[in-house]
Design goal:
Layout lengths: L2 H4 L13 H5 L3 H22 L3 H5 L2 H10 L6 E5 L5 H6 L37 H15 L5 E6 L6 H13 L3 E7 L10 H11 L3 H13 L5 H10 L1 H7 L2 H6 L4 E7 L3 H14 L2 E7 L7 H4 L28 H15 L3 E5 L3 H4 L1 H7 L4 E3 L4 H13 L3 E7 H4 L3 H9 L6 E5 L16 H4 L7 E3 L4 H13 L5 E4 L13 E3 L2 E5 L6 E5 L4 H12 L5 E5 L2 E3 L3 H8 L3 E9 L4 H11 L6 E6 L9 H7 L4 H18 L6 H7 L1
Parallel strand pairs: 1-2, 2-3, 3-5, 4-5, 6-7, 6-8, 8-9, 9-11, 10-11, 14-15, 14-17, 17-18
Antiparallel strand pairs: 10-16, 12-13, 13-15
């Protein structure tokens, strides 16, 4: 039977599951069948829409066991990272929503309070659940409520520093709390870091001598400290033996440990969870799972176990069905390697996202010059500061949404020291299917306040390559290069350049200066054509470097009757706001209208759908611009005349 045939009716047992109570009634044999049906269901549904298939195939039995032992929603089940919650959604009555997973009107790819009472935290930023759990457990204890709190932490989340801050507090408080470590050894790709290495040793349960040999081999590759350090470790054998014991790792914190248990054995996981539930204090249950378990295409995918296909894929091969296209990420990755060929001081850093951000391309050619720090953006930023202090130029590649987590480090650890660090923000602006937590709409506003930081927004492949080179050429402070997701826009050559500002279209009439930021450049030229049909002239410019505001942009603004900015970031504190302030400072009294994303939580859907909802299409913008400039005509006011502007104000 094919996967498609097996899921036509969601499977005999799966079709009968409307809530956790149905899973609790099943026998061990039925649970095995149900697990297989859930895997078939996941593969069939996600193959049509894209989504996080690999991580969820690995937590099927684990999630079944959790819902059999605990009573959701009274007992709170928290998933970290949140993309591991598909099976939880299936069990809690949301099977039908998977037909439109990550699509408008369908299920979110993460826990979502609006979908179900079984979802509490809408977390797609990793390493947060233990902090939520700590607060929940304290609240229930203070209120005298007997409710269990369970945090599933895995798929790389334990590489984040917040987890360890939370563990310290959880141990100190001593409240009942179950921490399920979903140990699959991977996040997007093989998990990075000392903790990950330690869990790997637990997963394999090696003997002491084998561990010592591993340590010796690793240290042997570190010529300056390797041999002396190995000799020290050899002299404290007992300490090393204790260090690789599971109990020593967590119980020194004051947290009891159960495991490792086979995360694909429902009875074994149930036994461990019941023991943890009845203990009365914080307990870690260490479950060993395999990402992509039960699906050959995922298990054979060495890059990321089919972590999160961005669209429909072939069930047999796991390959995307859409024809390959040149992505913004590909252009960045290609140019970064070329820059690194020319500049041996350029190094790459990423936070557990080497493949999705393109840093993996650099790593394949210069593995010694790339550092994957795990899900630890704060550490990435400050480590980059150290690299810059040491004479290198780090290029830190992360999703735009995730750099929000490192604002303090960018501000005080990098910018205050005027360090040459380039942050490359992939998935900037409205990204679509992954929803509000993944939208990269905050960066130009949030980081625009950082003194000495320069922000570039390329419009196409050529300007991305050019602006990356300009960014790494800066040696007296940090830079940000931001670009959207998806297929890179067709090259849009400039008519001329004024300072750093590219003029993309102009008219004999100077009615409107349209400042089109980054990927909105093409929209800007289309708007100019539409507005020209109404008899008005529009000059379209791409500032290229949006922060600080170029003086030349202010000068161009002074020569027009109206300035309109269009950006795919939040309006509050955005490019339009900054330009208006720069114009006020220069006593340029031309009115400014800023179009952008309203600050808020915008639902998931395609980028085109959401931009249409926000009125950020060529048709909408042209209508707005025409209305504004015709309104100035109706008022018979020329804002370039100080006395008339004063009267207007």
């Amino acid at each position: 039977m094919s996967v498609e045939e097996g899921t036509a009716n969601h499977g005999r047992l799966l079709g009968s599951v409307r809530g956790p109570q149905d899973v609790k009634r099943m026998t061990a044999e039925q649970l095995d069948i149900l697990a297989a049906e859930i895997r078939d269901f996941l593969i069939a549904k996600v193959s049509r829409t894209g989504g996080h298939v690999g991580p969820n195939l690995g937590v099927v039995e684990l999630t079944l066991a959790m819902h059999r032992v605990f009573d959701s929603p009274r007992d709170r089940l928290l998933f970290d990272t949140g993309h591991q919650a598909y099976v939880h959604k299936i069990i809690t009555g949301r099977q039908e929503g998977f037909d439109k997973l990550r699509q408008r009107g369908g299920l979110s790819g993460y826990p979502n309070q609006a979908e179900s009472e079984h979802d509490l935290i809408e977390n797609s930023h990793a390493s947060t659940a233990l902090s939520y759990a700590d607060g929940l457990a304290k609240a229930y204890a203070l209120r005298g409520e007997k409710r269990a709190v369970v945090a599933v932490v895995g798929d790389g989340a334990l590489t984040g520093g917040m987890c360890w801050e939370a563990l310290n507090n959880i141990a100190t408080a001593g409240n009942p709390l179950v921490i399920v470590v979903n140990d699959n050894g991977r996040s997007y790709s093989p998990t990075i870091g000392g903790l990950a290495d330690h869990l790997s040793s637990l997963r394999l349960n090696p003997g002491y001598e084998k561990v010592l040999d591993t340590v010796k081999d690793a240290l042997g590759n570190t010529p300056f400290v390797g041999k002396p350090m190995y000799e020290v470790l050899h002299a404290v054998k007992k300490g090393i033996k204790d260090a690789v014991a599971p109990q020593a790792m967590f119980e020194d914190l004051g947290i009891k440990y159960v495991g490792p248990v086979d995360g694909h054995d429902v009875p074994a996981v149930e036994t461990a969870l019941r023991a943890a539930k009845n203990f009365g204090g914080p307990v870690i249950v260490h479950a060993v799972t395999r990402k992509g378990y039960g699906y050959r295409a995922a298990e054979e995918d060495e890059a990321d176990r089919l972590h999160g296909p961005g669209g429909a894929f072939d069930i047999e091969t796991g390959k995307l069905l859409a024809a390959p296209s040149v992505k913004w990420t590909h252009v960045f990755a290609d140019e970064l390697v070329k820059v690194a060929d020319e500049r041996p001081d350029v190094v790459g850093i990423t936070a557990a996202m080497a493949e999705p951000t393109g840093i993996a391309t650099l790593a394949r050619k210069y593995p010694e010059r790339v550092y994957d720090v795990g899900i630890a953006e704060q550490h990435a930023a400050t480590s980059a500061a150290g690299l810059a202090m040491g004479g290198l130029h780090p290029v830190v590649a992360v999703y735009a949404t995730f750099l929000n987590r490192a604002f303090d480090q960018v501000l005080l650890d990098v910018a205050m020291h005027k360090l040459p660090v380039t942050f490359v923000l992939d998935r900037a602006g409205i990204t679509g299917p992954d929803g509000p937590s993944h939208y990269g709409i905050w960066d130009m506003s949030v980081f625009g306040v950082v003194p000495g930081l320069r922000i570039a927004a390329p419009r196409d492949s050529a300007t991305l390559r050019e602006e990356l080179r300009e960014a790494v050429a800066v040696d007296d402070g940090p830079t940000i290069l931001r670009f959207p997701t998806g297929t890179v826009a067709a090259d849009l050559p400039a008519l001329r350049r004024v300072g750093p500002v590219d003029v993309l279209a102009e008219s004999a009439r100077t009615d409107v200066l349209l400042v089109a930021v980054g990927s909105f450049a093409g929209l800007g030229t289309e708007v100019a054509t539409r507005v020209a049909e109404q008899g008005y002239g529009v000059t379209v410019v791409d500032p290229r470097w949006v922060r600080p505001v170029p003086a030349e942009l202010v000068e161009l603004a002074a020569g027009h009757r109206l300035v309109v900015t269009v950006e795919d970031g939040v309006r509050v504190g955005g490019v339009g706001s900054a330009l208006a302030q720069a114009m006020r400072d220069a006593d340029v009294r031309v009115p400014v209208k800023d179009l952008g994303v309203p600050a808020g939580w915008h639902p998931h859907g395609t980028r085109a759908q959401i931009l249409a909802d926000l009125g950020l299409t060529a048709q909408d913008v042209a209508r707005d611009v025409t209305g504004w400039i015709s309104g100035l005509d109706a008022q018979s006011v020329d804002p370039r005349q100080p006395d008339q502007a004063a009267a207007q104000n």
